[in-house]
Every structure is written in C-alpha cells, then in structure tokens.
Amino acid sequence: KQEVTQIPAALSVPEGENLVLNCSFTDSAIYNLQWFRQDPGKGLTSLLLIQSSQREQTSGRLNASLDKSSGRSTLYIAASQPGDSATYLCAVRSGGGADGLTFGKGTHLIIQP
Amino acid sequence: GAGVSQSPSNKVTEKGKDVELRCDPISGHTALYWYRQSLGQGLEFLIYFQGNSAPDKSGLPSDRFSAERTGGSVSTLTIQRTQQEDSAVYLCASSSSGRNTGELFFGEGSRLTVL
Fold first, then answer.
1. What b/e sequence results for A94-113 when a residue is b if at least 16 CB atoms lie within 10 Å of its CB, and e otherwise?
2. Checking CA distances to A83, which of A27, A77, B113, B115 falls within 20 to 30 Å?
3. For residue B64, what pLDDT is reported?
4. Longest C-alpha distance within chain A, in Å?
5. Inter-CA distances, A7 with A10, A23, A104, B109, Å
6. Of A91, A95, A106, the CB nearest to B104
7. Does B106 touch chain A (CB under 8 A)?
8. What are the φ/ψ torsions at residue B71 (nearest 5 degrees)?
9. Which residue of chain B is at minimal alpha-carbon distance from A88?
10. Does the distance separating the beta carbons of A41 and B99 come in below 8 Å?
11. Residue A2 and residue A102 in contact, taking contact as beta carbons nearer than 8 Å
12. For residue A61, what pLDDT is reported?
C-alpha cells in the first residue's frame, strides 16, 4: 500500500528566502506525482505535474523534482512571498486503491512579511 | 467553463435533512472524483467515475451517501439523513485521462455544515 509523507508539517520563514518542501513515498512504482496548493477554505490548485519518466518540472518560481528510485520529490520555491502562504500537498498516482491516488497530509507554509 | 465548478459553495442544513452537492467538471474530462476533507484533515476518497463505466463507490462511508453522473458530465453527490459528522468540505476533481495518467483539477469545494 502506497504511503505518502510530507515533512515538515509546518514551516514559517521570512519573505525572500528560498525554501524546499519534501514529499516521500514508499512504493516507487508510480505513474506521476502532482503538487498542489490549498488556501484556507478553498479547493486545491494544481502547481506542477511530474510524469514518472521526468526528473523535474518548472513553473515560474517553482521547481519540482522527482527521484523515483529513492521515493522522493521536492518542491523548491524561490524568493518566497507572503502570497505563497498556503498548505502544499503532494499526490502520487500509483494505481493502488480505487482512485489510484495517495495524498500527503500537506505542509502548512507561512511566509512572514 | 474553464475550471471545475461546484455548487453550492456553502450549505447549512439540519440533522436528518437530505442534501445534494453538484459538480460540473472541465469539459471533455472523462474522469471525475469526489473527496471529503474534514477540518484540519487530509483528503478522504469517496467515489470515482470514469467515462460510462460503473463508478467505484468503495470510499463512500455509509449507504446514506450516493452519487451519480449524468451523460458523462455533471455529477451529483447526495447525502441522505445528514448527521453532524457529515460536516466537511466536499471536493470534486476531474481529469482528462484514466486513473493512471492525467493532471487532476479540483473545484473550490462545497462546505457542508450539519447543525
């Protein structure tokens, strides 16, 4: 059974810092991995999707990497801004379960102005 | 529409009443998912539709919960005889591909409060 862990559970950093959020998974036989952000009281917004054949994806100040063999993905946020404050979740598609998806519990990020 | 649309955004109901939550997926998306997120908790899978195939209902917590998808597009999640523990945000997502591929897009959710 796939398990997804996100560390840290919460993070608070000053504005302008570069930071890394971690996502680890136990079964490396995955199809893809997707990073989301969730603002309070809102739905999930897709940030980046990495297919199993890819090693990284970039969108603006965000860069996500994938190392399937070690069961890890990182989300790198450059030059953080207060608007980046949100909960960041990763979801792994590995075909297990009814929906084929396993979500992490998220990292709650606060960027201090 | 451009994204996944859910209605109502907020619903307050009394214990014992039935509620219906609607999801309008992105046009052309064949896969549709319902999740539940209780306060401070992770996502709990409820049900999955893929095209015209029979849905996978294995995540529905009780027989008070049901869902249908008409014409392979709009979906309705129905909760009968609501209980206070049903209070949560109900999230719908859609994807252009089957369960093993494709980017997942979520709606803004329907917040249900059962008094």
1. beebbbbbbbbbbbbbebee
2. B113
3. 97
4. 42
5. 8, 7, 10, 26
6. A91
7. yes
8. 60, 25
9. B42
10. no
11. yes
12. 97
pLDDT for position A96? 67
Taking CA atoms, what residue in B is nearest to A33? B103
How far apart CA B47 and CA B23 sit, in angstroms, is: 13
pLDDT 10s digits, B66-114: 999 988 799 999 999 999 999 999 999 999 876 667 889 999 999 999 9
Contact status, residue B110 vs residue B67, Cβ threshold 8 Å: no
Share of chain A above pLDDT 90, in %: 87
Chain B within 8 Å of A9 (Cβ-Cβ)?
no
**Amino acid in position B6:** Q
Tell me if the bond preceding B8 is cis, omega within 30° of 0. Answer: yes
Counting Cα atoms < 13 Å in the Cβ hemisphere of A1 gives 4
The contacts of residue B67 (CB under 8 Å, 6+ apart) are: B34, B46, B47, B49, B55, B57, B60, B75, B76, B77, B78
- Residue range A79-102, pLDDT digits in tens: 999 999 999 999 999 876 677 889
Residues of B in contact with A36 (CB under 8 A): 106
CA-based nearest distance A8→chain B, Å: 15
* Per-residue pLDDT at B99: 60
**A93 at interface of B, judged by CB pairs closer than 8 A:** yes
Q: Tell me which residues of chain A have a pLDDT lower than 50.
A: none
Residue B64 in contact with partner chain A when CB distance is under 8 A = no
Task: Enumerate residues 6+ apart whose C-beta is below 8 A from A28.
Answer: A68, A69, A70, A71
